[in-house]
Design brief:
- The complex is a heterodimer of chains A (374) and B (609).
- Chain A contains 18 helices and ten strands.
- In chain A, the strands form two sheets. In chain A, strands 6-7-8-3-9-10 form a six-stranded mixed sheet, with helices on both faces. A four-stranded antiparallel sheet of chain A has the order 2-1-4-5, with helices on one face.
- Helix content of chain A is 46%, strand content 17%.
- The longest helix of chain A has 19 residues, at 137-155.
- In chain A, strand 4 (74-79) and strand 5 (82-83) form a beta hairpin.
- Chain B is mainly alpha-helical and 609 residues long.
- Chain B has two domains: 2-257, no CATH class; 283-604, ABC transporter involved in vitamin B12 uptake, BtuC, CATH 1.10.3470.
- Chain B is built from 23 helices and six strands.
- Chain B has helices at residues 2-6, 28-45, 69-88, 101-127, 135-152, 170-188, 202-224, 229-249, 251-261, 263-276, 285-309, 318-330, 345-367, 374-392, 434-457, 460-470, 472-477, 482-507, 526-536, 542-557, 565-579, 588-594, 601-604, and strands spanning 19-20, 156-157, 415-416, 419-420, 425-427, 430-432.
- In chain B, the strands form three sheets. In chain B, strands 1-2 form a two-stranded antiparallel ribbon. A two-stranded antiparallel sheet of chain B has the order 3-4. In chain B, strands 5-6 form a two-stranded antiparallel ribbon.
- In chain B, helix 7 packs parallel to helix 10, helix 11 (285-309) packs antiparallel against helix 18 and helix 15 runs antiparallel to helix 18 (482-507).
- The chains are: A alpha/beta (374), B mainly alpha (609).
Chain lengths: 374, 609
C-alpha cells in the first residue's frame, strides 16, 4: 500500500496544470446571513484540493454553489473556462460530480442501478428509444452496464451489484456514492466528507481510493474534518472560516498559520508557546514546543485525536492507528507527510524509529490504544 | 418443522421442550391423523346432501354431485387432504410442500373450516335454523372442525418470548402478553426456506406455467361468474385462505421462480389465458364485467407509472380517462356531439390520447417544477375542474360542447376494417358478443400499456423516475433533468389513460361527467384507481391488475353492502396498509430486501412479472 501511494504521487505530479475549476468571488447570502463571502478557489487537473473549516464555516454551502444546488448571489464558477449554468443537472452534465455529506443513495434501487443512474448524463436514449427499442438501445444499455460494473469493480463492490443500496454497510454506501458520481465521467469530483463516521482502517482505504481517482485523471475537491486525512491527501488546502477563505496553501503553510489555529481553538490567551492547554488537557504528556495545529482536529472530531497527535504524542498514543491497521501503514503516512512539509519531515524522521518500536510491540500494550479509540 | 413433516412417526420435534402446538393437549400423531381424517371426511361429505330444500341457492340437496358452495368446500378439503398426506411424507405428494407442510396444512384446514362453517351458517340463517341441515351438513361441520383442531395441535417451534415485567402497569402487562401471544401465533404459521426447484427441461417448465395460467383463468372465471352473494363471499374466503395456504406451502415461490425464468413467455401466456376468457362464457353477461375490469386495470397500470415509478401523487387521474373518452366521443359521429365528424378508430384513438397528453402537459408543466404535495392538490383540483367544466359546457352556462350532465349519448359502435364491434360473431363455434369484442380490443390496449410499462421502467428514463422518487436532490446531482423526466412520466401516464378512455367511450355508449368522480361507489374513480395501485403493489406490473380486479369485483358482486361499501373498503385498506404495506404483490425491490442472500442476479434485473 505504501508503494502505491508513493508511486501515485510521482506519476501524477507532472499532470498538474490546466485549471479545471475556477470559482471567483463566490458569495452566498440567505436573507441577511452571508454564508459564503467572496471565496476564490481554483482546482487544477491532477490535483487534490482540500477544503477545511470549523462546523458552520460554509463549506457545504460553497459546494452547493459550485454544483448548482444554490445559485450564488455574487461571483461566478467556471469549469474548464466555461461559466457553469446555475442548475444542478447541467453542472453534472458539464463534468462536475459530487457526493453528499449525508449519504444520499437511491436506497430502494440496486447497487448497479445506482451507478447506472449516475451514468444518466452520458446516455442519450430517450423515452421513444426505450419504448420502441430503437437500434442502438440495447448496445447503449449494455455499454452503460459494462461501465457501471467496471466502476463497481474499481470500488470493490462488483459482487454486491444486485443488493439493495440500503442494505450495504455504511462504508460501502460511501464508496457506492463515489462510484455513482464517477459514472458520469466527471473532470472534477467534489467529495463532501467522504470519511465521516469511518474507522481509521476505512479512512485509509478511502484515501487510497481518492488517490486512485486522481490517477484516473479526475481532479478532486474534498471537504473533511479529519486533518490527518486531509494533510496526507491534499496537494493544497483551503481553510474556510465564517464563510471567508482564510488561507490557501500546502499542508505546512496551513498547519502553521496562526489564524487557522485561532479559528479552530480560539485566540491564544498567552503567547504562542502554550497555544491551547484546555482541549489538550486530556492528553497529559504534552511536549512544550508542539504547535497547536495538530490539536485542531482533536477539538473538531475527538475520535480522530489519536492519529492526529502523532508528531508530539508519546508512543502509547501513536499506537492507536497501528493497533488497528496493518503495521506498514504508519510509515506510509509519515512518508507522505514528509513529502509535504520539510519541517514535519524533520520532526518525523526524528520520531520514526521511536514509532517503529511501539508498532512492533503493539500487542504488549493494547489497552492504551483502545482507550484512545473510545 | 421440516423435519417433522419428513419423519412423522417420531412424535418429538428437534427441540421437544419448545415445540408444541397452539392446542397443547393433543398428541402429535393423533393431531396429524385427525387433520387427514377431517380433510378426507370433508371431501366425502361434499357428495352428500347438506340440506333438504333447494331453496338455498346452489341446490345442495343432491347426493353424488357437489353444487354451489359444496364445490368450494371440496377444493379446500382436497387441499387439506393433500397437504396432510404431504406432511406424512407420502410419496408423490411431497412436491406439494416445498417449504414444509405444517404451516400450509394449518392454513388449508383453516380455509376448509371457514368455508364449511360459512356454508352451514348461511344455510341455517337463510332457511331459519340449523334444523334445515341434512346429516351431510352436520358431518362437514364436524369434519372441518376436527381437521382444524388437529392442524392447530401440530407442533411448531415457539419463539423465545420476553417475560412480563411484574412492575409494569396492568395495561402494559396486557400489551406485553398480547404481543407474546401474537409472536407465538405467527410462529405457528412460519415456514422453512423454500426448496429449490429441481432442474427440468424447459418444455416441462412451460407446461407447468401453462397449468398455472389455466388454474388462474379457472379461478378468475369462477369468481367473475359467481351468481349469488353467498357464493361470491364463499369464493373470497376460499380464494383468500386457499391462496394463503398455497403460498405457505412454497408452491407460489416456485411458480414465481418459473415465471421469472420465462418472463416474456409468461406474460404472453397470461394474455392468451385472458383472451380465452370470453370463450368460457355462454353469454355476454360476464364479458361485460371482464371489459370493465380491463378498462379499470389498464388505467390503474397507467397510474402506476406516475405513482409507482416516478412517485408523483396524482389524485385526479380519472380526469385523463375522461378527457380521452370525451375526445373520442366528440369525434365518434354520435348524434349529440356538436362536431359532426366521424373519425376512424385509429384517428379517434390518436385524438383521445393526444387530448389527454395535452392536458397532462398543461397540468404538469406549472406544477412539476415544485416538489412535495403541490402536484397532489393541483391534480385533485384538476379532476374536479374537468368534471364541472364538462357539466357546464352545455350551451346554457357555457359553450355547447359536451352536452352538460346529459353527456354524449348513443356513441356508435366501433367498426375496424369491417369488423363490427356491436354485432355478435361466431368464432370456432363460440358466440362472441358485443362486450366480448370490446374485451379483445381492450386486451390489446392493455398489452400496449404493459409493454410501455415494462420497457420504459427498465431503461434510462425508468431509472431516472425511480431515482427521482427516491431522492430528488441526489437525482438532480446525478445529472437528471428532474422537471423534464417528471413531465414525461406525467404526460405518458395521462396519454395511456386517454387511450383507455377512447375505448371506454364506445363500450359504455354514453359518456357523462358523473362517470369521472374523485371518489364514488363505482370504479373507476380517482380514489379507487389509487387504491388499486397501492393495494396491488406500487411499482409492480401485476399488482395494479390484481388490485383493480378485486376492487371492481367486490363492489360489483356484494351489492347488499350498499351504503357500507366505502366504509368496508376503507377498513380493508387500513388493515392492508398495517399488515402488508408493500401491497398484495410485493415489488421486486421489496422482495430483494427479504431475499438478500439469494443469488439470482440475472432475474432480478427485470421488472416484476
Amino acid at each position: 500500500m505504501t508503494t502505491t501511494t508513493q508511486s501515485a504521487d510521482a506519476t501524477s505530479a507532472p499532470a498538474v496544470g490546466e485549471t479545471v475549476l475556477d470559482a471567483r468571488g463566490v458569495t452566498m447570502r440567505f436573507g441577511g446571513l452571508t454564508a459564503v463571502r467572496d471565496v476564490n478557489l481554483t482546482v487544477n487537473s491532477g490535483e487534490i484540493v482540500g477544503l477545511i473549516g470549523p462546523n458552520g464555516a460554509g463549506k457545504t454551502t460553497f459546494f452547493n454553489c459550485l454544483t448548482g444546488l444554490y445559485v450564488p448571489t455574487e461571483g461566478e464558477v467556471r469549469y474548464k473556462g466555461q461559466v457553469l449554468p446555475p442548475t444542478s443537472y447541467k453542472v453534472t452534465n458539464a463534468g462536475i460530480a459530487r457526493t453528499f455529506q449525508n449519504i444520499r443513495l437511491f436506497h430502494n434501487m440496486t447497487v448497479l442501478e445506482n451507478v447506472l443512474v449516475g451514468r444518466h448524463t452520458r446516455m442519450k436514449q430517450g423515452l421513444w428509444a426505450a419504448l420502441l427499442r430503437l437500434p442502438g438501445f440495447k448496445k447503449t444499455e449494455a455499454e452503460a452496464e459494462q461501465r457501471a460494473m467496471e466502476l463497481l469493480e474499481f470500488i470493490g463492490l462488483q459482487d454486491k451489484a444486485q443488493h439493495l443500496a440500503k442494505n450495504l454497510p455504511y462504508g460501502e454506501q460511501r464508496k457506492l456514492e463515489i462510484a455513482r458520481a464517477l459514472a458520469s465521467d466527471p473532470g472534477l469530483i467534489l467529495l463532501d466528507e467522504p470519511t465521516a463516521g469511518m474507522n481509521p482502517q476505512e479512512t485509509r482505504a478511502a484515501e487510497e481510493l481518492i488517490f486512485k481517482i486522481r490517477d484516473m485523471g479526475v481532479a478532486v475537491l474534498v471537504i473533511e474534518h479529519d486533518m490527518r486525512f486531509i494533510f496526507n491527501l491534499c496537494d493544497r488546502v483551503a481553510v474556510l472560516v465564517q464563510g471567508q477563505k482564510l488561507i490557501e496553501g500546502d499542508s505546512a503553510t496551513v498547519q502553521g498559520d496562526e489564524r487557522v489555529i485561532a479559528a479552530y481553538l480560539g485566540e491564544p490567551v498567552e503567547s504562542e508557546a502554550a497555544p491551547a492547554p484546555a482541549p489538550a488537557a486530556e492528553e497529559a504528556p504534552e511536549t512544550p514546543e508542539a504547535d497547536g495545529t495538530d490539536e485542531a482536529p482533536a477539538d473538531e472530531a475527538p475520535s480522530d485525536d489519536a492519529p492526529a497527535d502523532e508528531d508530539e504524542a508519546p508512543a502509547a498514543e501513536a499506537e492507536a492507528p497501528a493497533d488497528e491497521a496493518p503495521a506498514d501503514e504508519a510509515p506510509s503516512d509519515e512518508a507522505s507527510d514528509a513529502d509535504e512539509s520539510s519541517e514535519d519531515a524533520a520532526e518525523e524522521t526524528d520520531e520514526a524509529p521511536s514509532e517503529d518500536t511501539p508498532s512492533e510491540d503493539t500487542k504488549h500494550d493494547p489497552a492504551s490504544g483502545k482507550e484512545n479509540d473510545a | 418443522m421440516t423435519t417433522i413433516s419428513e419423519n412423522s412417526t417420531a412424535p418429538a420435534a428437534p427441540e421437544p421442550a419448545v415445540a408444541t402446538g397452539l392446542i397443547g393437549f393433543v398428541p402429535v400423531g393423533i393431531a396429524r391423523a385427525l387433520t387427514l381424517g377431517g380433510g378426507i371426511l370433508s371431501v366425502a361429505s361434499c357428495f352428500t346432501a347438506w340440506t333438504w330444500t333447494p331453496r338455498f341457492p346452489g341446490d345442495l340437496t343432491f347426493y353424488g354431485s357437489p353444487g354451489g358452495l359444496q364445490m368450494q368446500v371440496l377444493v379446500t378439503g382436497l387441499l387439506t387432504t393433500l397437504f396432510a398426506l404431504s406432511s406424512y411424507g407420502v410419496k408423490g405428494t411431497r412436491w406439494l410442500t416445498p417449504a414444509g407442510g405444517d404451516a400450509a396444512l394449518k392454513l388449508a384446514a383453516l380455509a376448509n373450516f371457514a368455508i364449511a362453517w360459512f356454508t352451514v351458517g348461511a344455510i341455517s340463517v337463510t332457511l331459519g335454523g340449523p334444523v334445515n341441515l341434512e346429516p351431510g351438513g352436520a358431518i362437514v361441520a364436524l369434519a372441518s372442525l376436527l381437521a382444524l383442531l388437529g392442524a392447530l395441535a401440530l407442533p411448531f417451534e415457539r419463539p423465545k418470548v420476553l417475560p412480563v415485567d411484574p412492575e409494569d402497569t396492568g395495561w402494559d402487562q396486557f400489551k406485553h402478553r398480547a404481543g407474546n401471544g401474537w409472536d407465538s401465533f405467527k410462529a405457528a404459521f412460519a415456514t422453512a426456506p423454500v426448496r429449490r426447484l429441481p432442474s427440468m427441461h424447459s418444455s416441462v417448465e412451460i407446461l407447468i406455467i401453462t397449468g398455472i395460467l389455466a388454474v388462474a383463468l379457472g379461478v378468475f372465471t369462477y369468481g367473475i361468474g359467481t351468481e349469488y352473494d353467498e357464493l361470491f363471499l364463499g369464493f373470497l374466503i376460499t380464494a383468500g385462505l386457499g391462496f394463503a395456504a398455497v403460498n405457505k406451502s412454497g408452491l407460489m415461490q416456485q411458480a414465481a421462480q418459473l415465471t421469472k425464468k420465462h418472463q416474456n413467455l409468461s406474460i404472453a401466456g397470461a394474455f392468451t389465458a385472458a383472451a380465452l376468457f370470453p370463450f368460457t362464457q355462454t353469454d355476454d353477461q360476464y364479458a361485460t364485467l371482464g371489459v370493465y375490469i380491463l378498462i379499470f386495470a389498464t388505467v390503474a397500470l397507467g397510474l402506476n407509472i406516475v405513482v409507482g415509478l416516478a412517485g408523483l401523487l396524482d389524485l385526479g387521474y380519472v380526469a385523463f380517462l375522461g378527457v380521452g373518452a370525451y375526445a373520442a366521443a366528440l369525434v365518434s359521429g354520435a348524434p349529440t356531439s356538436p362536431f359532426g365528424v366521424h373519425l376512424p378508430f385509429w384517428a379517434a384513438i390518436l385524438v383521445g390520447a393526444g387530448a389527454s397528453l395535452v392536458f397532462g402537459v398543461l397540468i404538469g408543466a406549472p406544477t412539476l417544477r415544485l416538489r412535495g404535495d403541490y402536484l397532489a392538490i393541483v391534480t385533485l383540483g384538476f379532476g374536479e375542474i374537468f368534471r364541472i367544466a364538462v357539466m357546464n359546457t352545455d350551451g346554457t352556462s357555457g359553450p355547447d360542447i359536451t352536452n352538460g350532465s346529459n353527456g354524449i349519448a348513443s356513441i356508435p359502435n366501433l367498426n375496424i376494417l369491417g369488423f363490427d364491434f356491436g354485432a355478435e360473431h361466431v368464432i370456432a363455434g363460440f358466440t362472441i358478443g358485443r362486450f366480448a369484442n370490446y374485451f379483445f380490443l381492450m386486451l390489446l390496449i392493455m398489452a400496449v400499456v404493459v409493454l410501455v410499462f415494462r420497457r420504459s421502467g427498465n431503461s434510462r428514463i425508468g431509472r431516472a423516475w425511480v431515482a427521482i422518487r427516491e431522492d430528488e436532490t441526489a437525482a438532480l446531482a446525478m445529472g437528471i433533468n428532474g422537471f423534464r423526466v417528471k413531465l414525461i412520466a406525467f404526460a405518458l401516464g395521462a396519454s395511456l389513460a386517454g387511450l383507455a378512455g377512447t375505448v371506454q367511450a364506445h363500450v359504455t355508449y354514453t359518456v357523462t361527467p358523473e362517470q369521472y368522480l374523485f371518489a364514488g361507489p363505482i370504479p373507476p374513480n380517482s380514489a379507487f384507481l389509487l387504491a388499486a395501485v397501492v393495494l396491488g403493489g406500487m411499482g409492480t406490473m401485476s399488482g395494479p391488475l390484481v388490485g383493480a380486479s378485486l376492487l371492481f369485483l367486490i363492489p360489483n358482486k356484494l351489492q347488499f353492502m350498499g351504503e357500507y361499501q366505502l366504509l368496508a373498503f376503507g377498513v380493508a385498506l387500513i388493515l392492508l396498509m398495517r399488515f402488508r404495506p408493500e401491497g398484495m404483490i410485493a415489488n421486486r425491490r421489496n422482495q430483494l430486501e427479504f431475499h438478500e442472500k439469494d443469488e439470482t442476479p440475472a432475474t432480478l434485473a427485470k421488472a416484476g412479472a
